[in-house]
Amino acid sequence: MKKRNYFQRLTIRHLSTRMTIYFSIVIILALIAIASSISRIFSDKLIIEMSGVVNQKMDLICANLDDSLGYIRNLHFSIVNNPSIVSAMQKRPENKTLEDKQINTIKDELDKYKLRDASIQSIFLIDNDKNILDALYALPPYNKIITHNSDFSYFINEGMLGRFSV
């Protein structure tokens, strides 16, 4: 019996009140449907725009990386084909070390590259016998640091002619 009284209290007896409530419910449901549709459309548009922005940024990053790699390749090419370095290396007697004059010539040329570019921290040449051709880097503490470096080991094991490391 209590349930019946409860439902009887919820019934709306006046037609105008009932119409107002139904109309309000329909309007609210329509607004919710419109708001969710607009939200969905704008979120899809936002995702598309964000995807476009991300693609543009990735293209810019790739272009910068390509430019940097091109610069590094050109730098490597100019070092390998530097006439002063090539002539000093060619003057080296068979199975003997370079003379101090040749080492200084090479060091001066490599120092020019280091001064030109702030991102270059060190450059040194290695002969076919894996000897470091720089008076400073050939000293025991530096030589040990270099020869025990994983990048140097990779360079030697792979038989590379040039390597850039970070």
Question: Would you spell out the secondary-structure blueprint of this structure?
Answer:
Blueprint: H1 2-10, H2 15-80, H3 83-90, H4 100-116, H5 140-147, H6 150-158
Account of the protein in words:
With 166 residues, the chain is mostly helical. It contains 6 helices and no strands. The chain starts with a helix and ends in an 8-residue tail after the last helix.
Rough outline = rod-shaped
> Spans of 5+ residues with little confidence (pLDDT < 50)?
none
Largest sheet, strands/sense/barrel: none
Distance between termini? 85 Å
**Global mean pLDDT:** 83
Order of helices and strands: HHHHHH
Question: By helix and strand content, what is the structural category?
Answer: mainly alpha
Number of helical regions? 6
Helix content: over 70%
The beta-strand count equals 0
Strand content: under 5%
Give me the Rg, rounded.
Answer: 38 Å
